[in-house]
Amino acid sequence: MDLHFLHKNLETNFKVSLHREREFLKLWHYHPEYELVYISKGRGTVYTGDYIGPYQPGNIFLIGSHLPHMFETSTVGPASGDEGISEAYVVHFGDKFIRGFYENSIEFGYITSLIKESVTGLSFSSPGKKVYKIFQKTTSGNIQENTLHFLRILYYLQQKKKIQLATPAWIDQFNSGDKKLNKVLQYIMLHFQEELSLTEISSYAGMNKTAFCRYFKMKTGKSFVEFLNDLRVSFACKTLLEKNISRSISDICYASGFNSLSYFHRIFKRSKGVAPSEYRGG
Q1: What is the pLDDT of residue 192?
Q2: Are 276 and 258 in contact (CB under 8 A)?
Q3: Which residues pair with 122 in a beta bridge?
Q4: Is the domain of 208 the same as that of 129?
């Protein structure tokens, strides 16, 4: 599975759509448009840059332009929504839509602020029922009415607690124009749950192991093993906090890509300061 470039080809400056299906499209992709997603039904995992975390009903995500992302629907545990249906309100909007707001920063400063922060992706875990009701209206009115509803949503979100998703360092790497590094990062993101050796990744990059280690450390500030372990720990954290799915620490260890339970415990505690069982409990 590769990283895909998708251009939404918007007929207007922004487009609202309601996605209602068994599973969201599992596609690691990016596009020039900004994307605002409200999860109304379903649970799963969201991948945004180097961020891995859960999503559930009521979550909102603001995905920046050209930021790689994917929503993977959970097929484990109790049914999500009506008979296992996943549902999300999705708004795509481009630079033309937001350009005018930069020229009126006093009135629309809240919009430009959100757009600047969206470069790493943002999540809003508890936006409230009011925002959901406004999202519902965005699919039933004309373009002018829907635009006003959308501006109201952005206004409310700016007042809510925001969580940054991808790390700025990862964003800088991906946007660096280094095609080789971007290719390597994409490969790691897609295969970190598998047995991924230094030999395999250096061969994929077309370099010997010594040269690759030097190159990767220089570009990312981390060794390949450190980078890979950070991703795996992030995935483990997400899984440990999933209340609707009961999995043993051992299962989570191997599902995250680690092949040794003792090594997993050691790396997890070094990263989070607590053991996996303590993290889950508290």
Answers
A1: 94
A2: no
A3: 62, 164
A4: no
Q: Are residues 156 and 49 both part of a single domain? A: yes
Indicate whether 147 belongs to any domain.
yes
pLDDT digits (tens, 9 = 90+) for 146-176: 989 999 999 999 988 999 999 888 888 777 6
Q: What values do phi and psi take at 196, rounded to 5?
A: -120, 105
| Whether residue 142 sits in one domain with residue 33 | yes
- 122 lies in the same domain as 182: no
String of DSSP letters for 37-85: EEEEE--EEEEETTEEEEE-TT-EEEEPTT--EEEEE--SSSPPSGGG-
> Chain-wide mean pLDDT for the chain?
88
Angle at 166 between CA 162 and CA 169, to 5 degrees: 125
Do 24 and 144 lie in one domain? The reply is yes
Amino acid letter for position 22: R
Query: Do the Cβ atoms of 42 and 110 come closer than 8 Å?
Result: no
Within a domain: residue 182?
yes
Ranges of residues in the chain whose predicted pLDDT is under 70? 1-3, 5, 7-11, 76-83, 176-177, 244-245, 282
Q: Match 């790493």 to its residue by tokens.
A: 120
Number of H helices, E strands in the chain: 12, 11
Domain that includes residue 249, residue range: 176-281
Which residues contact residue 225 at a Cβ distance below 8 angstroms, ignoring those fewer than 6 apart? 198
Rounded to whole angstroms, how far apart are CA atoms 129 and 206?
Answer: 51
Residues 159 and 271 in one domain: no
| Number of domains present in the structure of the chain | 2
- 111 and 8, same structural domain? yes
Q: Answer whether 0.85 is exceeded by the pTM.
A: no
